[in-house]
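Q: My labmate handed me this sequence with no annotations at all. I'd like to see what the chain might look like in three dimensions before we decide whether it's worth expressing. Could you predict it?
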Amino acid sequence: MKAFFAWLFSEHNSNLQIGLFDRWHFFYLFIVFGGTLLLSVLGRKKPALKKKFLPLMAYLTVGLYAIDFFIMPLSDSYGGSISAYKLPFNICTIMAVLVPFVQFNSKFNRIKQPVAVLSIASSLMWMCYPGTALGGQPPFCYIIFQTFMYHGFLFCWGVLNLAYGEVALHFKKIWKELVGILMIFVWASFGNAVYDRGYNWFFIESSIFPFLSDAVMPIAVVVSVFGVCVVIYCAYYGLQALLRKKTAVK
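A: Here is what I predict for the chain of 250 residues:
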């Protein structure tokens, strides 16, 4: 049994490789975006399904995040140990902690909007530039599958909240996302300072791009994440206008 699980979660289960914007990268993007679109349409046509899809995406997001800590020691991708980098100091992993609160407890409805938008923004940014999928690993090894599916479920949960009308966006309230980003910045800075092992949570300690210096990363991260939030708002308004126009024509 031990040998089976070692093979199941191994990084060396095939000769295939995944790289940035290759066919396997686009395959995962197609699965995530296509599945999200399908669930959005089904939920709008059959409102009863909303009560199933949203909790399901929340459970899958939190479940994949939690179970990863039990599987990492079985995977050679992590050297047989638990990676501290998976602690909730990155924006994506922090969302896994916040999602169950806003999904299952109405007391947190005030922060559901920024949590949903930041879930979309952070997962979308990772899926477009997946750092852990750039090393030529097999496309269906554990580390690749888990990270894509985790971000995919997180993305889907956020989008479904907008598609189902659980969260309505108003530009006058976009300051909540900015405040959320700054709070995550402070929390990540605390983690980087306390652990002091070069984890670079939230990418604010050192640059991941050759064309950006370490010094500008704190500002670049805040601006880029907030910029993606603005794009999400614009897309939301555009789709709302398109749907209203379509309804008026009918």
